[in-house]
Amino acid sequence: MLLDGINAALLNHDVTLAEMYERYTSPACRTMSTAELAARDKEFYAERRRPDAVPVFGLDVAAPAVQYALGVGLLDAAFTDDLEQSPPSLGLRRALAEVGLLTLTGGGSYITARTFRALVDSVRRPVWVSAFVLRTVSYHPIVRALAAHGLSTTVDVAHTYPQRLFTDEREQRYAIEAVRALGGDPAGCEEDGRFHSLRYESRPDTR
Q1: What's the confidence (pLDDT) of residue 106?
Q2: Beta strands 101-107 and 77-79: pairing type?
Q3: Which of 39, 79, 141, 166 has its CA 20 to 30 A from that of 150?
Q4: Residue 146 in 3-state DSSP?
Q5: Low-confidence ranges of the chain (pLDDT < 70)
Q6: What is the 3-state secondary structure (H, E, C) of 68-91?
Q7: Residue 50's CB: how many other CB atoms inside 10 A?
Q8: Which residues are registered as beta bridge partners of 107?
Q9: Alpha-helix residue ranges (DSSP H) falling in 123-154
Q10: Are the C-beta atoms of residues 103 and 131 closer than 8 Å to each other?
Q11: Are the beta carbons of 45 and 72 closer than 8 angstroms?
C-alpha cells in the first residue's frame, strides 16, 4: 500500500484524526525538538499499533517528511523519487510490485499523469487508486492514463472533503476562480474559506 504518514497512522493505529490534531497542536509537542518528538511518537504509535496492520510505503519528494514517518514506525519503507522528472528507482519498483492500493490525499496540483503512469507501470498485481483531489485542478488527464491501464474511475461530485484553510484572500480568490473554470460551484466550500477535494476511486475494469 502506498500512502503518506498521516494516512498510515490512521489506517494501522488506534488513533483518530481529531486526536492527532490535539496531539500535535498541544503546547507539549510544540515545544519539543524534532528528536524529542520522534522518540515520543515512536512510543505513541507502537502502543497503538493494530494487530491487523498492513505494510505501508511512503512516496514524497520531501525527504524529511517520509524519513520522519519511517523513523517513528508509520512506514515500512520510504522513497523520495520525483516521478515527474525520472523513472522509479530499483527500490521503488521492487516495492510497487507488492502494492495493491495507491492513494493521493488533498493534492493533484503538482502531480500529473506522468507520475501515475510510472506507478501503475511498476505494479504486479491488480491495483486500486483512491485519490482526494483538490477541486482547483482537473483530474481528467490522470483518469485517462489510468483507463489506459485498465482502471475505471468514479467520482461523486456532490460530496466534497474539506482541506486546509486558505492562507490569504488572494489564494481564496484563485481557488474560487479555478473551481468555477472547471464547472464547479464554490458556494459553501471554497467561498467559506477552505480548499475542498473530490474523491476519485479507480478500480480494475471487470466488464
Answers
A1: 74
A2: unpaired
A3: 79
A4: helix
A5: 1-4, 207
A6: HHHHCCCCCEEECCCCCCCCCCHH
A7: 11
A8: 133
A9: 140-147
A10: yes
A11: yes
Give the cell for residue 49.
Answer: 499499533
**pLDDT at 205 (0 to 100):** 82
Convert 11-39 to b/e letters by CB count within 10 Å (16 or more is b). Answer: bbbebeeeeeeeeeeeeeeeeeeeeebee
Which CA distances in Å does 141 have to 45, 151, 207?
37, 13, 22
d(CA 81, CA 62): 10
What is the structure's pLDDT at 109?
Answer: 78
**The predicted structure's pLDDT at residue 105:** 86
Cα distance from N-terminal residue to C-terminal residue, the chain: 25
The CA R_g of the chain, rounded to the nearest whole Å, is 18
What span, in angstroms and rounded, lies between the C-alpha atoms of 71 and 42?
Answer: 8
State residue 98's pLDDT score.
87
Q: Which residue has the cell 524529542?
A: 36
Distance CA 16, CA 126 (A): 29
